[in-house]
Design brief:
By secondary structure, the chain is mostly helical. The protein is 84% helix and 0% strand. The protein contains eight helices and no strands. Helix 5 packs antiparallel against helix 6 and helix 5 packs parallel to helix 7. The longest helix has 18 residues.
Amino acid sequence: MNNHIYIESEKVFKKYEIEENFKKINDKFRMAAVTGNRAIVYYNYGDWENAITGQLDAAKIFESIKDTEGICNTHNTIGNIFLKTGDTARATRYYRETILLCGNRFKNIKANAYSNIGIIHLDHDRPDSALFYFRKNL
């Protein structure tokens, strides 16, 4: 991890008070998006705890404005974070939640979640289960 870039990212968020400005104008969609993007910065630098916390915070904001697509995206991203840390049980849980939340909408997000569950099964030497999820992804 390049600590210098990580620290600079933190300075940018603080300097411009990005989240605070969206709070002031009550733009919850952008507040959620920025919170999620900030969490992705944490993810990119291996700060899993802040990445997960940030995505959960973004999901809560999306829930407050009933933005199902945002909720689906954040749950899928949380699954990706857990997958990256090797916690496949939690990753699978969040991918399944993503699939349920998406219903018949947001097919690209849903397909990604199915594919990631398939990858987990493949990594655990369960090719038949993996194939099942890969087919659902189509």
